[in-house]
Design brief:
mainly alpha, about 75% helix
């Protein structure tokens, strides 16, 4: 292992861990909050366009544009890449310890699936743990394949799914454009009304449910939407699984372990990030003056911006690998590494804090905080994650949920005191 990677690894506070991977994971778990905040603050549809339910100020549109440019889709891609890399790393270490890596990994992912279901029922409908567990099982089945085969499957599935969705959205986008220009036919007006009706209905339902108490909201999800996560899986599997497969390949190729030549790291980081941000900025330059037309925004977010999301995810990862040897020894770097080591606990912590802030069983701010002020909650969440993670790891080997998950996986209560 190169000296830079070895130095970064020892800074994790646990010799077996890759501090570079933890540092990137720390950035990702912070970045995810910058996107999730819109759905925490609600309603969910406001994450599509700030003006969908009511007109917003220029400051709110600028705040939305900031998250859209640097975080939307990119952090989700980065987190999925990291999860794929982690699948290979965990399998390798299980095998090295004399265990059957596939069996241990399946058990680990099944527990994650159950923990994700609990997260959905108890806290937040936007859980990704269930999705990651199912996609992780799919990725594990494909793990024995070579890198070229994995990349071929990943890229083929990723772009086939996104292109199909974009094609399927074309009529609604055309109808929205015609309405905006005043040239729409009756059929186009009807099509647009059909698109908006469930969106507004769901927003109204969210507003009603946001006022419920904790037990009431739990029962609504348990009785009325017990298969919500399966529905989310059907809409996100073809994005998340391919990104995990790419993450497996780039881990095997040494991106996170310091074995990739610096020239290639620079090229991947600079080119991927620059191209991804440029493509996003081009769309933003079109959408912002038109106040983020919701049908087109939805199509772009779910389907059309797949390429810049993947480019930025890989680009961000490479840039952070380059920065890790210098960043890791700093106070910020150590806190990011600690936040990354406790990414599971921090992810659930943000759900707990933000649902308390916005839901009726807490402060009840749901639907009242516009995009510009949402950044205050993001920065508070970042400060919280960076503040508590490092002190916790001075006393304990793992975060509380990381300890629980590992204990369940190994089927014994692990010691956690340092």
């Amino acid at each position: 292992m190169p000296d830079a990677a070895r130095r970064a690894e020892t800074l994790a506070g646990e010799p077996q861990r890759l501090a570079t991977l933890d540092l990137i994971r720390g950035v990702a778990v912070l970045g995810i909050l910058a996107i999730n905040i819109a759905t925490f603050a609600g309603p969910m549809v406001s994450s599509i366009s700030p003006n969908l339910l009511r007109p917003m100020s220029r400051a709110d549109e600028a705040a939305f544009a900031l998250g859209f440019l640097f975080f939307e889709g990119k952090m989700r891609a980065l987190f999925s890449l990291l999860f794929g890399a982690g699948l290979v790393l965990f399998w390798e270490r299980a095998e090295a310890a004399g265990h059957n890596g596939d069996v241990v990994q399946v058990r680990r992912l099944c527990w994650l699936l159950l923990l994700g279901a609990a997260h959905y029922l108890l806290l937040w409908w936007g859980d990704i743990l269930f999705l990651y567990a199912v996609c992780g099982l799919g990725a594990l089945m494909l793990r024995p394949l070579g890198d070229r085969a994995l990349l071929g499957i990943a890229i083929g599935l990723y772009y086939a799914w996104h292109l199909w969705g974009l094609f399927d959205s074309a009529a609604a986008i055309h109808a929205e454009t015609a309405v905006r220009h005043g040239t729409a036919t009756r059929a186009q007006i009807h099509l647009l009304a059909e698109w908006f009706e469930p969106v507004r209905s769901w927003a109204a339902q969210e507003l009603r449910e946001s006022r419920l108490g904790f037990a009431q909201l739990f029962l609504v999800k348990l009785v009325e939407r017990p298969f919500w996560q399966v529905q989310m899986l059907s809409g996100n599997f073809s994005e998340t699984l391919p990104l995990m497969l790419v993450g497996m390949v780039i881990y095997r190729r040494g991106l996170f372990t310091g074995t990739v030549p610096r020239r290639r790291l620079v090229a991947t980081g600079v080119a991927g990030t620059a191209a991804g941000l440029a493509l996003t900025a081009m769309f933003l330059a079109w959408a912002w003056p038109r106040h983020f037309p919701p049908v087109t925004m939805h199509a772009a977010l779910v389907w059309g911006l797949a390429m810049p999301h993947l480019l930025c995810g890989c680009g961000y990862a490479a840039l952070l690998v380059m920065a890790a040897p210098r960043l890791a020894p700093t106070a910020l770097g150590r806190r990011l590494i600690a936040a990354g080591r406790m990414a599971f606990s921090n992810y659930i912590l943000t759900s707990l804090v933000m649902t308390f802030m916005f839901y009726g069983w807490g402060l009840g701010l749901f639907g009242t905080v516009a995009p510009a002020r949402q950044w205050l909650f993001v920065m508070a969440g970042w400060a919280l994650m960076l503040a508590w993670s490092e002190p916790w790891l001075r006393r304990y080997r793992r975060g509380p949920l990381e300890w629980l998950w590992r204990s369940l996986t190994e089927m014994k209560v692990l010691a956690n005191r340092v």
